[in-house]
Amino acid sequence: MPFTQTPEFQSGILPFLIALVGAAVLRLVGGQRGWLPVALVLPIGFLATYWAVEGIAAFPPVASKQKVFYLAAGAGLAGLMLHLARAGAKTTIAVGIGWAVVALIWLSERQIAGADTTLIATLVALAAASGIVFATLTSAGRAPQPTGTESTGAASSGMGALQPGIALMVAAFAAGLISLQGAFIGMAQLSVAVGALLGGFLLVAWIIYLRRGATIPFGPLGVLGLGGSWLACVYVMVLFAGQVNVWALALLLATFLLVPLAARLPSARPGVVGRGLQTILFGAVVALPAIAAAIWVLATAAESSGY
Amino acid sequence: MKKLMTAMIAGVVLSVATLSAPAQADTYKVDPAHAFAMFKVSHFGWSNNWGRFNDVTGSIDFDKADVTKSKVSITIKTASVDTNHDKRDAHLRSPDFFNAKEFPEMKFVSTKIDKTGDKTANVTGNLTLLGVTKPVTLSVTWNKEGPHFRNKDKIHTGFSATGTIKRSDFGMKKFVPAIGDTITLFLDVEAIKQ
Question: Model ipTM?
């Protein structure tokens, strides 16, 4: 099998490089005032990774995992429009919840006609969880400021812009592992790819933060464009992968709920070392539920066998 | 005399009409206990992996006078896939392959039958798998028909069929070509006359 067709390349190296190079280029081209939204690389990177992992999505899409591509594209487009409209936090969250409701209905359209109460309850729970995820990602640090006025520090101030990215990254890696243990490799690859995309993006963002004390905003493109794409993968895992541990997935919600708490940790001392340590500490705290979920699925997984 | 002539003419007309009437197809219901739907697929080129579906139902309208007028309808529950390996079967049921939760059934409905021999025919029909419908042709052999040795009223008829599909045609692209795209199908079905 050529290396470019291996899961390691498709879900790890490729998205990481797309985000790393893309973010660096957009940052350099856009300049310090960031007239080009660097976070644009995130939804574009997800769609490119989807193409590598699943191939070109059928149109019109028939199966739920084909719909993920179009849901991700829609979320990315919504994120871009919110960015251009300089939408505030409340608008971003409202659009996110609206997107989530439409996505869940579309994904489960075949089953929803049966009006099964378990399914309805699951859809409601997923929509509510999505609202929490969008609200946390949007509010982490401060509200998204589309023009990325990082030099003034008024908008994407300090570590604030890194917080949503770190939370989403650890949740995405953990969800990938949960899906893999649940015998659903497709969404596992895409979820890990979300983590890898953020790894590349946050590396650029972190370097800027360490040097300047303020960094690239996550904004609606990150919140909706990548957060929504990841949630679409989670919806398919929960609704259609019977072996996936949905309670371990539910535990990942705590990753997002911990963000405001972790953000209150003592502010970094001035300087590179202080900022670096604060980032690591924040990451370690929000990663706790993700680590717990990972340990849970690994401990309860049947003995692996290469078939 | 006139009445007798009328009755004779009516009798002749009725007889001719009866003789000319097309033979009705007999309806058979697939016997799930004797319905075997199996498949094989290349595994990295090292060997063929074999599997089967354990839940096969359907009906056959069998017109022995003109087999081209027969109809076949087979339904298979995708969650019944069985390759003798629990973890692999769980993966096959997942959205990576048969997506059994979203598409619990696959269905074959014949559209055309071409007789190729005394007891053989090519049966073309629409296979619906993962929500996608594509034409598929099966080479079918009619093995035998006869009463069950324990219950003479139960007439059994049996068929064997083979065919191939490309799973990517139905959107099942995961791990192609490492796991082969071409799936070879084998069906052996007994059906009971209704």
Answer: 0.86
